[in-house]
Amino acid sequence: MRKCRSHWSQGDRERHQRRSYYYEGPHTSHSSCGGRTREEVVTPPLPEHAAVGSPMAMSVDFKTYVDQACRAAEEFVNIYYETMDKRRRALTRLYLDKATLIWNGNAVSGLDALNNFFDTLPSSEFQVNMLDCQPVHEQATQSQTTVLVVTSGTVKFDGNKQHYFNQNFLLTAQSTPNNTVWKIASDCFRFQDWSSS
Amino acid sequence: MSLPSGHTMGHTDQVAQRRARCSDIYQRRLSSRSEKVNPGIHSSSHQQQDGEAAMHGAHMDSSVRYTPYAISPYNRKGSFRKQDQTHVNMEREQKPPQRRMEGNMPDGTLGSWFKITVPFGIKYNEKWLLNLIRNECSVPFIPVEFHYENMHASFFVENASIAYALKNVSGKIWDEDNEKISIFVNPAGIPHFAQKELKSEKVEKIKLAMNQQCDVSQEALDIQRLPFYPDMMTRDTKMASNPGKCMAASLHVHEENIPMVMSAVGMDKWKGTEPGEKCADRSPVCTTFSDNSSNINSILELFPKLLCLDGQQSPRPTLCGTEAHKTLPTCKGSFFGSEMLKNLVLQFLQQYYLIYDSGDRQGLLSAYHDEACFSLSIPFNPEDSAPSSLCKYFKDSRNIKILKDPYLKGELLRHTKRDIVDSLSALPKTQHDLSSFLVDMWCQTEWMLCFSVNGVFKEVEGQSQGSVLAFTRTFIATPGSSSSLCIVNDKLFVWDTSHQGTQSALFTLVPTAFSSVPAFSQEQQKMVQVFSVQSGMNY
């Protein structure tokens, strides 16, 4: 893989980046040939919103929101847990600067604290068995496109027994004309059997 | 000397560069091997010299001044073999290096030595590397005993705050291939080249004890995740007191037993590796050596199978104790942003579940926003063959990990309050145990509150009457009318704890959200109003 990337000229790299924006589905900027230079969840640009208020517009909007939410959620979850397990140091790139995490009741706020926190967590092996998502109503987000993502499964932290876990994320969209980048605004993690751990 | 990112190089340039680097690396390896055991660094000998004076760790409240470069009478001409190195003790427990160093800083303890390691530093020229680090490091430093060890570059610094500053440089410098350079920092203990000579009985005993304690699991060792470069040895007494944890152990004590990353001896175990095959796709560095059988060991050392940078499959015992110091944070109970919001949320939950459990859920219409969303899920367990009390939730369960039908995906996400309440009404009747509730308030802004409730409930009718199920329910709510909350998103996850054996564990002993909530008071009502006013809504 390294060999591949080091053979590219700058021009090649740029062309590759641009090409990936035309893909139909979501993608990651690192998933293609080449190294993992960036951790991001990227989807196509957000559609224009129809006029708010008209019934047709509302239903079109909602379906679009749902589809978009699903795509972002699926792609996001894949990247998140893989990064958590295999490239832990890159994990905080998936968080907004001011993101917060409540981890089994422990509050962690801001990128620096998050970096420290993930650094002190033992290595992990996540297995996600359940994933669901909902678009968050704009009244709650003041039109900042946001998706609620909920996951569940098992996790084994090195040196600890396996736990069932539930996790919730609020993902917000950062839009550019070419694409949408999703980042975690808030994160809530709990072992299902936390009290016995 | 480092190239700006994006610098283009012709192919032949790159090959020439690689070849030059390869021979550099080869030279460095040769010279580091042929070095005699350096009489400079002798924490152990220093111990011997001081008799029973225990070293409580090189960095922490060391009443004994640690002078690693004093040549003790026990260490002339590399007579390490005769010594019992195992008297050296690191009697402290394993703690995360960061905490250790922070513990140091208020002291500004001088005379504390730290070993700074750059993984794969063998690729880099010493001057170039040190300059690069210097440019990024917030404090000046004097690197002592810079040397290459196996694949890595190391040097020592004498000061905890310098070590700390160097640690912060990790990941902020890049090499010519645009690869991030990491820096690992460790309190200096027994130096590696000193340990090669350990042969005593005590060492054997320790090895034995380690093997018993060690949880040698088949895992790829991801160098990126190594928090520090394990350099410590603990006594077997310490091991006994921490049976559940692996100790960080000197790499070289292990080397005959378990092949480890960077172990000079361990490569015997990898004889099956085809150096050419392994290296070709990994790095340009080894191509120079691939046809030189006398360098096979070097290659294996440089690129042991164990080193899975990309998280590839590689069955290999873990470096036992690498992360012994990494413990999980203590799990705590409910988390609320503030007392006022706590009361608001608890009041809401009391009202909500009163209606939810009443037998008629139509009353919940006023709790939801017109365009709210609701969905529910149950776990997907391939092993579950027997029907369980969860089966009634099965048809409504939305798990987009396995559900690919776009129509169903849409259908199972209930939209509008009418749909939602109808759907809730069709779910089994329940009795929630408020005393079991654990609440995490994990996002709050002016316009919304996001919180998750964990708890249990009982089924009160039907076949599985009396069975207890666990749930996590996430609400996103905006300020509503009548000083209450208005739900815009509702996500319910239900599972059966019986297979986990934790059916009651969630609730019995732990103080939960509702433990100390009094009945609604006037004060609480006022607080709720404050929230409404603050959010800009007029009621």
From TrEMBL, chain A:
Question: Is Transport found in the keyword set?
Answer: yes
Q: List all membrane-crossing ranges.
A: none
What SUPFAM superfamilies does the entry give? NTF2-like
Using the record's annotation, list all stretches that form the NTF2 domain: 72-191
Gene3D superfamilies per record: 3.10.450.50
- Whether Protein transport counts among this entry's keywords is yes
> Which keywords annotate this record?
Nucleus, Protein transport, Transport
The record's subcellular location field reads:
Nucleus
Query: What Gene Ontology terms for biological process does this UniProt record contain?
Result: nucleocytoplasmic transport; protein transport
Q: Where is this region: Disordered?
A: 1-38
Question: Where's it mainly located?
Answer: nucleus
Q: Which GO terms describe its cellular component?
A: cytosol; nuclear RNA export factor complex; nucleoplasm; perinuclear region of cytoplasm
- Name listed for the protein in its UniProt record: Nuclear transport factor 2 like export factor 2
This protein's species is Papio anubis (Olive baboon)
Q: Which gene encodes it?
A: NXT2
Automatic annotation (TrEMBL), chain B:
Which GO molecular function entries does the Swiss-Prot or TrEMBL record give?
A: RNA binding
Q: Where is this region: Disordered?
A: 1-20, 31-58, 83-106
* Alphabetized UniProt keyword annotations: Cytoplasm, mRNA transport, Nucleus, RNA-binding, Transport
Q: Where is the composition biased (Polar residues)?
A: 41-50
> Can you list the GO cellular component terms from the UniProt entry?
cytoplasm; nuclear RNA export factor complex; nucleoplasm
| Comp. bias (Basic and acidic residues) | 83-102
Q: What are the residue boundaries of the NTF2 domain, all occurrences included?
A: 344-494
Annotated GO biological process? poly(A)+ mRNA export from nucleus
Subcellular location, in the record's words? Cytoplasm; Nucleus
Q: Report the SUPFAM superfamilies cross-referenced here.
A: NTF2-like, RNA-binding domain, RBD
Keyword Ligase carried by entry: no
Q: Which Pfam family is one of those matched by this entry?
A: Tap-RNA_bind
What's the family? Answer: Belongs to the NXF family.
PANTHER family named in the record: NUCLEAR RNA EXPORT FACTOR (PTHR10662), NUCLEAR RNA EXPORT FACTOR 3 (PTHR10662:SF12)
Protein name in UniProt: Nuclear RNA export factor 3
Source taxonomy = Eukaryota, Metazoa, Chordata, Craniata, Vertebrata
Query: Which gene underlies this protein?
Result: NXF3
